[in-house]
Amino acid sequence: MTITQQLQQQVSAAAGLDAWRELPIRQQPNWPDKQAAAAIAEQIATRPPLVFAGEVDRLRERLGQAAAGNAFVLQGGDCAETFAGATADKIRARVSTILQMALVLTYGASMPVVKMGRMAGQFAKPRSKDTETRDGVTLPAYRGDIVNGFAFTEESRTPDPQRLLDGYHVAVSTLNLIRSFTTGGFADMREVHSWNQGFAKNPANARYDLMAREIDRALKFMTATGADFEALKEVEFYVGHEGLLLEYERAMTRIDSRTKLPYDTSAHFIWIGERTRDLDEAHMDFFSRVKNPIGVKLGPGTDTETMLRIIDKLDPEREPGRLTFITRMGAQKIGDVLPGLLESIKAEGSTPLWITDPMHGNGFTTERGYKTRNFDDIVTEVKDFFAAHKAAGTHPGGIHVELTGDDVAECLGGSDRVDEAALETRYESQCDPRLNHKQSLELSFLVAELLQQFPSAEVPVGQDNW
Ligand code: PEP
Ligand code: CO
């Protein structure tokens, strides 16, 4: 063992990075060969990290700014990324969609926008049931490409630990392309028009085009005055996913050589799902010990006591940007639940970042068996999120959505009026329904308008590559 490895081991032990193994744990695959899974995890632990501690720290600072009301966070991507979907075209479409939405938000609301993909690692899914039955045949539920296959056969549904390593490699290649796009000139603000190419005319796109023209004009004017736009060539783009498979997240956790602190290097940001956030269980324990900014989903059943205990567990030092609450309460319930939580937190000296996920509380299944969501419900939940923050005097810090850059029909409504018949023709998600490109843009215009009721940021837009 090298000296570095010895040091990693000692610090990991001191940091309690394996304490979760003794605790109750939910939503893990039932690997047929546990030793094989452990051997793969050991291999992953020797592979290079996806992200560096310095980037993670910078994101934490950015999120701290958002929590303080000086920035807004846009988090978006597939419900479940697939290995087959990790193509250059699909990745580009998602990155463009997020960049377009961010531009609308930045320009419309005069706030720097932290851009984050549910990308490059969003492969593992919690399921409501361990098994799925079709026509009398019962097989393990699909838990995401990093665990098993979607096809309903025994072979495909049997958890295969080799997929952990495949997941790592697909995450690496996805992040590599994201980094190229966002630092290699594609994300240059002077290219705002090109992000819109290939999309048919529709109100949201036309509105975007108009805004892109205004920005173009402003940039040309500034250039003529001698301003230097080199900084606009690159944007910061972060990635995050649900930290679900602890074997994988543990293997990707490394001790930073500079600070000697543990970082989960599988992503900049990790969130803990609604189903795995029990206070005395494995997920909370593990993620309380890594330095990454951590998100926690809060459903409609969240009470004040639980919320306060989560703060003490994950953010005992009250560190800006460390903790994000991602509320996913449903359009019917957010107005009843969120205001009380916001009021009770004010006395605590804690200023977590609040993000709305208007997707996961609004799902339903159509008579024909399609899992879907109404665009109007999504909009209602977003509006009520903003209203609750306005009333409490707190900052609505961001939005977390399931989206794709492609022209799918999975969520109903929007200006294109996607209907149930359309679901039959363009439904591609293997998991939850996503906003398509146009619905995503439409939502961003709406959010930009809502943000205008809040004080604008103290941090100048355009500073420092935001
Ligand atoms: C998700 O974000 O895809 C998810 C499963 O969310 P939640 O934990 O809020 O249900
Ligand atoms: Co989902």
Describe the structure.
- This protein has 466 residues and is α/β, with parallel strands linked by helices.
- The chain has one domain (15-187, 234-451): TIM Barrel (Alpha-Beta Barrel).
- It has helices at residues 3-14, 34-45, 53-67, 88-109, 154-157, 162-183, 203-224, 246-251, 282-288, 304-314, 334-346, 375-392, 420-426, 437-451, and strands at residues 72-77, 113-117, 131-134, 137-140, 238-242, 253-255, 262-264, 269-272, 294-298, 323-327, 353-356, 363-365, 371-373, 398-402.
- An eight-stranded parallel barrel has the order 1-2-5-8-9-10-11-14, surrounded by five helices.
- Helix 4 (88-109) packs parallel to helix 14 (437-451) and helix 12 packs parallel to helix 14.
- Bound molecules: phosphoenolpyruvate and cobalt (II) ion (CO).
The average pLDDT score comes to: 93
Alpha carbon gyration radius: 22 Å
What's the CATH H-level superfamily name? Answer: Aldolase class I
- Give the count of structural domains: 1
Helices and strands, in N-to-C order?
HHHEHEEEHHHEHEEEHEHEHEEEHEHH
Please tally the β strands and state the result: 14
* Overall outline: globular
Using the coordinates shown, work out and report the CATH topology. TIM Barrel
- Structural class comes to alpha/beta
| Major sheet size, sense and barrel closure | 8 strands, parallel, barrel
User: Number of helical runs?
Assistant: 14
CATH class: Alpha Beta
Low-pLDDT stretches:
none
State the end-to-end CA separation: 41 Å
Bound molecules: phosphoenolpyruvate, cobalt (II) ion
Provide the β-strand percentage band.
5-15%
Helix content: 25-40%
Strand order of the largest sheet: 1-2-5-8-9-10-11-14
CATH architecture assignment: Alpha-Beta Barrel
